[in-house]
Design goal:
The chain is α+β, with helices and mostly antiparallel strands. It folds into four domains: 4-64, no CATH class; 69-187, Tetrahydropterin Synthase, Chain A (2-Layer Sandwich); 190-313, no CATH class; 358-497, no CATH class. 69% of the residues lie in helices and 11% in strands. It has eleven helices and nine strands. The chain has helices spanning 4-27, 103-113, 118-139, 142-147, 149-166, 189-238, 241-387, 389-395, 400-423, 435-458, 462-476; strands at 28-30, 35-40, 47-49, 53-55, 62-67, 71-76, 81-82, 88-99, 169-181. Strands 6, 7, 8 and 9 form a four-stranded antiparallel β-sheet that branches. Strands 3-2-5 form a three-stranded antiparallel β-sheet, covered by helices on one side. It is elongated. Residues 474-506 have low confidence and may be disordered.
Length: 506
C-alpha cells in the first residue's frame, strides 16, 4: 500500500495537470484574418494576434478586438462650402479606409477604436474627413473642382492622410461622387465661359486699339516738339530776345493745349469704353429678364392648361360615374322586379300543384271508400249465399220468374250501397282527362263484382237472366207483358233515387 505522501503528491500532480489543461482550454484563442486580438496584462508589451492562435491566461490577461477590414466612409458637406471664386458648392464623396495592419498602426488605432464595430469607426472618421475636404474646396475654383476631380480627390487624400496617420488609419481611395451648386452655375458653366471668353477678347482688342492710337499720338506729338525745338533754336539765333520769348510763350501755350487735348481724348476714350460696357450689360440684363418673363408666361400657360384639362377630366369622370350608377340602378331594379315576378309565379304554381294534389287525394279517397264498401257488400253477399245454398236449390223449383224477382229486389239495395259514399260528398273537383270516366267505371265495377259474386255463389247468371227477360219482352211486343208475382215487401229505394254523381268542376 502506497504511503500517504505518495498519494498526496499524486493528487497534487493531477490537480496541477487539470489546472493547466483548464487554463489552456479556456485561454486558447484564434484571431480571424480581418481582426486583431490584443492580449494584455502580464507583459509590458501587448501581444497582437492576426490570423493565428495564442494563449490568454484567464483572470490575469484580457483580450480586446480591433477590426482590420475595409470600411466605407461617406463624406458629404452638410452645408454649402464657398470655393476660391466665392461660389457655394456641395460635394459628395466616398472614401475607402482601413486600420493599418502594422504594429504601430494597430497601437495607435487601439487607443481610439478598440472593440468598436465598423460603422462606429466610420462614424468617428466622418468629421475629420469632411473637414479636410472643406479645406481643399476653399483653395480651388469651381472650374477646377468640376473639371479635374482626380486632382481634387488626390488633394483630399493627401490632406486627410496626415490626420489619419495619427489615428492609425490608411486611406485606400477617395472618389468624388457628385458636385452641385445652389444657382446651377455648373450646368451653365460652358455657356457662361464661352460668352466670357468672347467678351474678354472684344475688350482686349478694344484696349489694344486704344493703346495703339495713344502711342501713335504720343509719337507724333514728340516728333512735332522736336521739330519746334529745332526751329526755335534756329530762330533764337536769328532773331531778337523778344521774338524768342514770344515764340517760347507760344510754344508753352501750345504744349499746354496739346496736353489738355490729349487728356480730353483719353478721358473720352475711357468714358466711351465704360458706356459701351454699361450698355452691353443692360442689354444682357434686359434679354435675361425677357427670357425669364417668357419662361414664367409659358409655365403659367402650361399650369392653366393642366388645370382646365384636370377639371374637364374630373367632370367627364363624374358624368361617366353617374351614368354608370344610373344604369346599374335600373339593371338592379329590373332584376329585382323580374325576380319578384318569378318568385310570385313559382309560388302560384306551387299553390296550384298543392291544390291539385289535394283534390287528387280526395278523389282517390272517395273512390277507395266506395270500392271498400262494395267489397264489404260482396263479402256479405258471399257469406249469406253460403247459408242459403239450400234455399237456392229450393227456389229453383219456382223457376226463372222467382229468381228474377229476387235479383230485381236485391239490385236497388246493391246500387244504394254502392252509391252511398258519393252522397256524403258536397263537391268533386277532377284534374286531368278521364277522371270522370274512372269514377263511373269504379261504380260499375263495384256493381259488377256483386253480380259476379252472386253468380259464383249461387250458380245463377244474373246477367243472362235479365237479358233473357228483356229479350222475351222485346220479342212479345208491346201488348205482351210479363207479370212477376212477389210477396208484398217494404218499398225499397230505386236506383234512380240514389244520389247522382256531381258534374266535374274545373
Amino acid at each position: 500500500m502506497p504511503s500517504p505522501e505518495i498519494i498526496l503528491r499524486a493528487v497534487l500532480i493531477a490537480l496541477a495537470v487539470i489546472v493547466v489543461l483548464a487554463i489552456v482550454l479556456r485561454g486558447y484563442v484564434k484571431a480571424p484574418p480581418d481582426q486583431a486580438y490584443i492580449i494584455s496584462g502580464l507583459k509590458k508589451e501587448s501581444k497582437i494576434l492576426i490570423g493565428r492562435a495564442g494563449i490568454r491566461v484567464p483572470f490575469l490577461e484580457r483580450m480586446d478586438r480591433l477590426y482590420l477590414g475595409q470600411m466605407t466612409v461617406d463624406i458629404k458637406t452638410e452645408q454649402s462650402v464657398p470655393t476660391s471664386d466665392f461660389i457655394n458648392v456641395n460635394v459628395d464623396a466616398v472614401a475607402k479606409v482601413r486600420i493599418s495592419p502594422h504594429a504601430d498602426g494597430i497601437k495607435l488605432a487601439a487607443k481610439n477604436f478598440l472593440n468598436k464595430k465598423p460603422e462606429e469607426i466610420t462614424r468617428d472618421l466622418q468629421d475629420s474627413l469632411q473637414g479636410n475636404m472643406r479645406e481643399i474646396i476653399g483653395t480651388l475654383s469651381l472650374k477646377e473642382i468640376n473639371t479635374d476631380r482626380d486632382s481634387f480627390s488626390d488633394q483630399v487624400m493627401q490632406k486627410a492622410s496626415k490626420d489619419m496617420d495619427k489615428l492609425g488609419i490608411e486611406i485606400l481611395s477617395c472618389n468624388i461622387q457628385n458636385v452641385t451648386d445652389e444657382n446651377g452655375l455648373i450646368k451653365d458653366l460652358g455657356a457662361d465661359n464661352t460668352s466670357l471668353i468672347k467678351k474678354n477678347a472684344a475688350i482686349a482688342k478694344a484696349q489694344a486699339d486704344r493703346d495703339i492710337a495713344i502711342a501713335q499720338a504720343q509719337a507724333e506729338r514728340e516728333s512735332n516738339e522736336a521739330r519746334v525745338q529745332a526751329d526755335t533754336q534756329i530762330a533764337q539765333k536769328q532773331t531778337e530776345l523778344d521774338i524768342r520769348r514770344a515764340e517760347l510763350k507760344i510754344l508753352a501755350d501750345g504744349k499746354k493745349a496739346e496736353a489738355d487735348a490729349a487728356y480730353e481724348i483719353q478721358s473720352q476714350e475711357q468714358r466711351k469704353s465704360i458706356e459701351t460696357a454699361t450698355v452691353n450689360a443692360e442689354i444682357a440684363k434686359t434679354q435675361r429678364q425677357a427670357e425669364l418673363k417668357q419662361a414664367e408666361v409659358e409655365v403659367q400657360k402650361q399650369t392653366l392648361e393642366a388645370e382646365i384639362r384636370a377639371k374637364a377630366d374630373a367632370e367627364r369622370y363624374r358624368q361617366q360615374q353617374e351614368a354608370e350608377a344610373d344604369l346599374f340602378k335600373r339593371q338592379k331594379d329590373a332584376e329585382a322586379a323580374r325576380y319578384e315576378q318569378e318568385q310570385k309565379a313559382q309560388a302560384e304554381m306551387k299553390i296550384a300543384e298543392a291544390q291539385k294534389f289535394a283534390k287528387e287525394q280526395e278523389a282517390e279517397g272517395i273512390a277507395a271508400v266506395g270500392k271498400a264498401e262494395a267489397e264489404a257488400i260482396r263479402a256479405k253477399a258471399l257469406a249469406e249465399a253460403e247459408g242459403i245454398d239450400k234455399k237456392a236449390e229450393a227456389m229453383k223449383k219456382y223457376g226463372e220468374a222467382a229468381v228474377i224477382e229476387m235479383v230485381m229486389q236485391a239490385l236497388p239495395e246493391i246500387a244504394k250501397y254502392v252509391a252511398q259514399p258519393l252522397s256524403k260528398v258536397d263537391k268533386i273537383t277532377m284534374y286531368g282527362e278521364g277522371n270522370s270516366a274512372k269514377l263511373l267505371e269504379d261504380i260499375i265495377t263495384g256493381t259488377s263484382q256483386v253480380t259476379e259474386g252472386i253468380t259464383q255463389s249461387m250458380g245463377i247468371d244474373v246477367k243472362s237472366l235479365v237479358a233473357g227477360m228483356l229479350g222475351g219482352r222485346l220479342a212479345a211486343g208491346p201488348d205482351k207483358t210479363v207479370v212477376i208475382q212477389s210477396p208484398p215487401q217494404a218499398e225499397q229505394p230505386k236506383a234512380e233515387d240514389a244520389p247522382a254523381p256531381q258534374p266535374d268542376e274545373e
